[in-house]
Write a structure and sequence with these properties.
The protein has 13 helices and 7 strands. It has helices at 9-16, 33-40, 52-64, 81-84, 104-108, 134-138, 143-154, 159-172, 178-188, 202-212, 215-227, 243-256, 272-277; strands spanning 23-26, 44-49, 71-75, 93-99, 230-240, 260-262, 285-291. The structure holds S-adenosylmethionine.
């Protein structure tokens, strides 16, 4: 089985300072890449995952490694962390990790339509409990709102042009799949878009994923709730992958939590060697906080 490569794993382990029998919350379990290493060091982990399929994969992987004894799986949204820890032994913990975004498996292989690279229904919901799909959004909201969402969540320069094309086309036929949307965006943007470095649909897809899954709202609510769970000297590590997320983490660290100390002033970034081996790590930024 091919698994997601954990990003900044060495840095995570070094800064979490895992101790035997210590308690840790992995807010974004994914393929359990980070969790497995915490378990191997003797830590106990509560693994939160919003996506049922991902949780099942992680549980199977942890069992295969014989490490299930100290692992507690939990299906849920990390925004509800204050409630999710109820009736568990993780109401006070030594460390918390967020590794935001999506796993390679989710981007490449699942049928939820997160990526423009594989054909799938334009859904993007990590959990079926979320009501609104990406198709609902592109086929219903006004041209102005669509342009605003694309611009605000992805800094897309051609947001107006893309929104106009979507609205014109959906009047003829609803946009239902990832490829339909990606092709439409490609046909409406200049052939030398970003000098060919990224596909013209990259930014619009990012914006839709953020909106459908309320990524920013989840993080804003979760960080202060999580901070309440840290034991003295407990650490919280947040790895983010785009500037909107990093801004939320930075602001959180700035003033909202006087009892938290910044362990590093500037976010850590992956070593060149890691980026060469795992290009998806290139935009990672790690911020680290410690409970006073
Ligand atoms: C980048 S992956 C984590 C990869 C993991 N650290 C590893 O090394 O295998 C992020 C995971 O967080 C999950 N996720 C995203 N938003 C979430 C949320 N609000 N609550 C819980 N899990 C979430 C995604 O479904 C995905 O599986």
């Amino acid at each position: 089985m091919k698994y997601h490569k954990p990003v900044m794993l060495d840095e995570t382990l070094a800064h979490l300072k895992v101790v035997e029998e210590g308690k840790y919350i992995d807010m974004t379990l994914g393929d359990a890449g980070h969790t497995l290493e915490i378990l191997k060091k003797g830590g106990k982990v509560l693994g939160i995952e919003i996506n049922e399929d991902a949780l099942r994969r992680a549980q199977a992987r942890i069992s295969e490694e014989g490490l299930e004894k100290n692992f507690t799986p939990c299906l849920g949204n990390f925004r509800d962390i204050d409630k999710l820890v109820n009736s568990t032994e993780f109401a006070k913990v030594n460390g918390i990790l967020y590794d935001l975004g999506y796993s390679s498996y989710q981007l490449d292989e699942t049928a939820i339509g997160l990526s423009f690279q594989s054909e799938a229904p334009l859904d993007m919901r990590l959990s079926k409990e979320l009501g609104v799909t990406a198709a609902d959004i592109v086929n219903s909201i006004s041209e102005k709102n669509l342009a605003n969402v694309i611009r605000e969540y992805s800094d897309e320069r051609f947001a107006n042009r893309i929104a106009k094309a979507i609205v014109t086309n959906r009047d003829l036929k609803k946009i239902q799949t990832t490829k339909e949307l990606a092709e439409l965006i490609k046909s409406e943007t200049p052939p030398d878009y970003e000098k060919g470095r990224i596909h013209p649909a990259t930014r619009t897809f990012q914006a839709l994923r953020i909106l459908v899954n309320d990524e920013i709202g989840n993080l804003e609510l979760s960080l202060p709730r999580a901070a309440q769970l840290l034991l003295p000297s407990g650490r919280m590590i947040v790895i983010s992958f785009h500037s909107l997320e990093d801004r939320v983490v930075k602001q959180f660290g700035r003033g909202a939590q006087p009892q938290l100390i910044k362990v590093v002033e500037k976010p850590l970034e992956p070593e060149e060697q890691e980026v060469a081996l795992n290009p998806r790590s290139r935009s990672a930024k790690m911020r680290i906080f410690e409970k006073a």
